[in-house]
Design brief:
This protein has twelve helices and ten strands. It is of the alpha/beta class. It has a seven-stranded mixed beta sheet with strand order 3-2-1-4-8-6-9, with helices on both faces. Helix 7 crosses helix 9.
């Protein structure tokens, strides 16, 4: 009935696997949990041990990093049931009826969402605020149920090597073809990203965005699914002026994003500035 697919990279998700296994057992369903180790450099011994004790859990240990899209496609190929539940390894179960809410759904794609817990740790404020403000009605593979026959029609694009946007295109195509049903069945993100790393990833994901925009195969999908790219196309004729203003305001924007109350508006301004810098 249900295949739970969890890619992991340098993150021990054994407690998540155990919780999900317990819930599935209590629900009395046919299920499997598959974790794919995408070339981690940290110790995965806990997961290896768990695979020896949990009957319905498999651990696929890939020694070489294959990338976010390929590992998910591989897990889907390994899955034997008709419903695929994609979960990121750094998630934590929030609701005790998490599995029950999914197994009663008949829609081809169901997104459960993310629950952002309050956290006053200044290290993670930017990422926490971003998730809290931008996670509503957005389907990501952090917590997404897809029927296997539907997944096989679309799959994740595998030729993008850098971070970001592969799940955005995937979700956009799913929504166009079948429509995504949103329910309140969230998971907690247990691995917030430090502010400095999050700012660095903006540049990395921008490179991916540009790569997809320049690729004729994905051009239409990425324009339709990316608000950032559509904003760029609107100001394209005055890009030089925007870059000039961005050059003088960049330091102030970064300082503000590092503050205790980062502005999502200024983050959008920053992302647009980085895009203008890097796109030709």
């Amino acid at each position: 009935m249900l295949s739970i697919l969890i890619p992991t990279y340098n993150y021990d998700c054994s407690s998540l696997v155990y919780d999900l296994d317990t819930m599935c057992s209590r629900a009395g369903i046919d299920y499997e949990i598959i974790v794919g180790n995408d070339g981690s450099t940290t110790n995965m011994q806990n997961l290896k041990n768990l695979s020896q004790t949990l009957e319905n859990f498999r651990f696929l240990d890939f020694k070489k990093n294959r990338g976010r899209s390929i590992i998910r496609n591989t897990l889907a190929e390994e899955a034997k049931f008709e419903k695929l539940l994609f979960i990121d390894s750094d998630m934590k179960v929030y609701k005790t009826d998490f599995i029950q809410l999914y197994i009663k759904e008949n829609s081809p794609i169901v997104a459960g969402g993310i629950k952002v817990l309050e956290d006053k740790n200044p290290t993670y404020i930017l990422h926490k605020k971003y998730e809290k403000n931008r996670s509503t009605n957005i389907a990501t593979t952090q917590n997404l149920l897809v029927r296997k026959d539907v997944f096989n029609e679309i799959r994740f694009i595998e030729n993008v090597k850098k971070y970001g946007y592969e799940d955005i295109i995937f979700s956009h195509r799913l929504d166009k073809m079948y429509g995504i049903k949103f329910i309140y069945n969230p998971l907690i993100h247990n691995g917030p990203i430090p502010t400095e790393t999050f700012i660095e990833r903006i540049a990395e994901s921008t490179e991916t965005l540009i790569e997809l925009y320049r690729n004729e195969k994905y051009h239409k999908d990425i324009v339709e699914s990316s608000k950032l790219l559509r904003a760029y196309l609107k100001i394209k004729k005055v890009k030089g002026l925007y870059l000039l203003l961005f050059k003088f305001s960049r330091r102030f924007i970064v300082q503000q994003l590092r503050s205790k109350n980062p502005s999502m508006f200024l983050m959008d301004i920053y992302k647009l500035g980085v895009l203008c810098e890097r796109i030709s």
